[in-house]
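Batch manifest line 353
LIGAND: 3-amino-D-alanine
JOB: complex structure
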Amino acid sequence: MSPTLALVGATGAVGTVMIDIINGRESVPWGEIRLIASPRSAGKKITVRGAELTVVALSPEAFDGVDIAMFDVPDEVSAEWAPIAAARGAVAVDNSGAFRMDPEVPLVVPEVNADRISVRPKGIIANPNCTTLSMMAALGALHREFELRELVVASYQAASGGGQSAIDRLYGELEALAGKEVGVRAGDVREVLEAAGLPVSDSPFPAPLALNVVPWAGSLKDEGWSSEELKVRNESRKILGIPDLKVSATCVRVPVVTTHSLAVHATFAREVTVEQAHKVFAEQPTIVLVDDPSAARFPTPADVVGEDPTYVGRVRQALDFPNTLDFFVCGDNLRKGAALNTYEIAEELANRL
Ligand code: 2RA
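JOB STATUS: finished
ARTIFACT:
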């Protein structure tokens, strides 16, 4: 019998992208698709693959008969409800941060470590954070060939990583600053925003984002690191299966609506040339290589948003570091960075049920 798929958080930002992805698939393996959300959204009608579905309220019974339940909800909701779904017999595929570093929960990027899907003692599989995910297809492919040893990363993260309120804030700031001569004196951007009723104290970002870059994403952790930087380190180690991988990350928010970018400096056990790296990338079905700087061809978030693959360019052999490549990746943080990877895990599971 065809499996039943549930989507928990069907009416949220990532849930909406998820429905878009399901609608865009040529075919799906599901018998029934069940939409689940908070009681506030229950009763809402959403069309999925031509059928009008009614959103049902989150409850233990909502998981009865469900084979795979995808969770696109905040950490605390997943922490409470993914185990309930699992206890009712579903495999929970969770896009929150609640279980990512739990040793009994696999953290999966299908093109890198699909094999981990089958060992899931808690009945839960975790989806990585979008920042880590945006570079994983590229790093996984290179690691298979050249054995990754060290990773230094700077992220350029889009506003939508912070949710709808962060997107609204960026648009609001852009509107307030449009046509103003700013960026010529320290503090002038803040002053215009304040005068427009948009003080930084009301923002999800700790500084103006429009016409600026903000070297901060996530919450403060020990010794000045941000939660986002530690996620890059810990999740990369777990996904790639290299517990002692040396990682250093600086996470930065940029005035882009959607699509995270990363500048990656990766050192391998063996020498790797640009030609070899290009060949590895070109062979990956989920990577698009755009790398011809002489023709101004490289990935940018504005050209990648809405796309499923990871885009890779600016591949260079580091001049002063042996066995090291520098490259730039862009990935839509709401698609591969969130909904798409979760859905790909669910599809992979459906093949194995
Ligand atoms: C961000 N990576 O970009 C986070 C979202 N999960 O804020």
